[in-house]
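Thread title: Can someone regenerate the structure for this chain?

I was given the following input by a collaborator and told the matching structure tokens would be attached. They weren't. Posting the sequence so someone can regenerate them.
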Amino acid sequence: MTVPEYMLFVLTMTGIGMILLRCSVGWKEARKRKQRSRLYEYGASKTIGSREVQEDEYGIVESEEGIMAVLADGMGKHFGGKIASRTVVEVFQDIFEDRNAFFNPQYYFRKAFQGANREILKRMDQEQGRASAAAVILKDGKLYYAAVGNVKVAVYRNRELVPLTAGHTIDILAKQKYMEGKLSREEATALLEHHRLYNFVGQDGFCDIEFFDIPVQLREEDYILLMTDGMYEGSSWKAIEECLEAAGKCQKKHLL
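Best answer:
Regenerated them for you:
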């Protein structure tokens, strides 16, 4: 049997923050032997880029049941964005330390996002800090994901990068409302240049989370990417694909 390999990138906006994950042994074999340390292979790095404060944060929780990775892109004044993104990561890590979380991904994603929203509001005023975030779970060769704001989740397969999430920006909302017949073509077109966020964690009334419909069955050599808007807007889709296609270990791949 061919041993599947799955890679996970997390690339952030102000510089590069990166998490790379590879499944190094067969799922059934690893679980049977209880070789937790051999289930996954990953690395991480982050740079601040040109900004004074790095407001992006990421975290990983690994267990015998699977692995969870979260990327948060903070926004706010006076270090508010940094506090917000750090809060998101802390809440996700705490919740996914519970091994039961891997058996009901959608419930625990919802629990984590709602918990992060409450904790941000508890720590600071609504206008001081907020964050976009996305999280993924890899379990038994399947990918589960959830996102809030404009952090994207995508899969690179067969030399093609395919987005799994749409995002919570005004232009995306306008497209959805047009398809639902709630906006005319002219009204929707007028909003297509507006990329302002309408949904994020760190606000009263937060409730909208973008979930997977069905888990993605991963294949050998798939890459899973979580990207902030600075990555997918600052680099072309083609450049990201070429980076992933190039030879070399994941830890050595850089786009900026």
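Helices lie at 27-33, 36-39, 80-96, 105-123, 170-179, 185-190, 229-234, 237-245.
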